[in-house]
Specification:
With 163 residues, the protein is α+β, with helices and mostly antiparallel strands. The chain is 26% helix and 36% strand. The chain has a domain of 114 residues: Immunoglobulin-like, CATH 2.60.40.10. Strands 1-9-8-3-4-5 form a six-stranded mixed sheet. A three-stranded antiparallel sheet has the order 2-7-6. The radius of gyration is 19 Å and the shape is globular. The N and C termini lie far apart (55 Å).
């Protein structure tokens, strides 16, 4: 019983954190093939940039220590991203780059995210998002030949921009 209560408390805490973070999401529309710049409103000397890889899993892109000194968390990131001051430049924007990006600062020994950006671009990002959801659904299918009841996934309505 105590274990169940602890699990429920953790779930409530997670929901509260997600809701608090979701309130401050800035949508940024990019054009495929161009460079897209995200600007963190915080102007401290140490800015950290992260991106969401998969639902609630964030990967470090890099950080800036001074106006001229940036380090990247993966060797390949330097060719895809540029950290310039409080800005993150995503080079040659592609459909795969449609995701959440976070800027944060170090406070009391941990990273505190101060801003969240949702990078989007017309139909290509919508189709990529749908493909990710379908593959996630297919990964949860029961083995062939079983009579296990399937749950139908729920999808949110996506509004496409008018042209």
């Amino acid at each position: 019983m105590l274990k169940l209560i602890m699990v429920l408390l953790w779930m409530i805490l997670l929901v509260l954190l997600l809701c608090a973070e979701a309130e401050n999401v800035t949508k940024v529309r990019g054009e495929l093939g161009t460079n897209v710049t995200l600007t963190c409103s915080n102007q401290t000397t140490e800015i950290h940039w992260y991106m969401e890889i998969h639902s609630q899993f964030r990967a470090c892109i890099g950080r800036r220590f001074s106006s001229a000194d940036s380090t990247y968390c993966s060797p390949g990131f330097e060719t895809k991203f540029s950290i310039l001051g409080n800005k993150l430049v995503i080079k040659n924007f592609r459909a795969e780059d449609c995701r959440l990006y976070f800027c944060g600062i170090r406070r009391d020994g941990s990273i505190q995210f101060v801003e969240t950006f949702h990078l989007i671009s017309g139909l290509s990002c919508v189709s990529l998002s749908l493909k990710r959801r379908i593959s996630k659904y297919q990964a949860n299918l029961p083995p062939a030949g079983t009579s296990e009841r399937l749950e139908i996934p729920q999808y949110e309505e996506i509004q496409l921009p008018r042209r």
